[in-house]
Structure prediction request, 265 residues.
Amino acid sequence: MPAVVLRDLDQRPLDQALTELHALTERHGYLVVVCSPATPEPVVRRLHTLRALLESDRIALFRPELPPLGMAVLARQLRQLASCDLSPGVIASAGRLLTHYIHAGAVLGSVAKLDRVPVGLKAHAKSWVPGSQFAVVAHPEPQLVRVAPGATLKGPEFGTWMVVAKGQLQSDWLGGLAEEWTAHALRETPLPAESPRWWGTGRLIEFCSHLADLSVLYQLVTSVRQSSCHWCGLDVIGDRCVFCSATPPVHEPHAPRALERRTPA
Prediction:
C-alpha cells in the first residue's frame, strides 16, 4: 500500500493542508498518520487542528516512542499489513503491538547532546575523548555502552532482520552486533532526515532490528483478541481505539442493597 509524506504542514496555508488531508481521506477511507516524537511541535499542533476541522474519526494520529529509523520500519510494516484482509481499526491499533518487537538504536560519535537515553557522567566525560564511540539502544529498553572489544547490547530473543542507516560516522562494530543478535540479513537504507536531531549528533549510524516477514506479522496481529469499539464500532485490538481514542467503559459493580430490618408491629 502506498505511503504519503505530509510535507511542511506548519508552513503551508491551512486551507491547502486541509484540502490535501480531506482528499486523502476520501480516496482511501481511513488514514493512519505515523508521527515521530522528533517532529517539531508546530507540526503536531497543525495535525490535531486539521483532524479537528475535518471532524473525522477516520484519521488516526499515532506517535510511538521510537527513533526515526524505527518509525520508518513501523510505517513499512503497517503498509505491509494494509495489503491483507484486516480492518482499518485493527491495522491502526497493530502499530502499538508491533512496537514491542522493534529494537532500535545507534552507534554515536558523541553522547554529549543525547537526551533520549539516560547518560551517566562518565559516558559524558568519555564523549569528549577523540575517537570515542558509543552504542545505544533506545527501544524497547534504554542501553548504553562504549564501543570496545567485548562490548555488547541485549537484543531480541527471536529472529529478526536488521536495517542500517549511515550518517557521518564509520564503524565496523555493527556487523558483529548483527551476528550476535542472529539477524537473518543486514541491509542499508538512507538516514532519515530527523535522525541527527533525535540522537543529538550527525556522527552516527542508526540501526533497527525488526520482523520483516509479512506472514509472521499477520499471524502476530491476528493472534490477538479483537473487540469492537463501543463508540465508533471499528474492530480494534488493545484497550483503546486509535481513531476515536475511546477506551472501554468501566462498569462499576453495583453496591449490594442493605436488607431492611423490620420491627414487628
Remarks:
- The two ends are 80 Å apart (CA to CA).
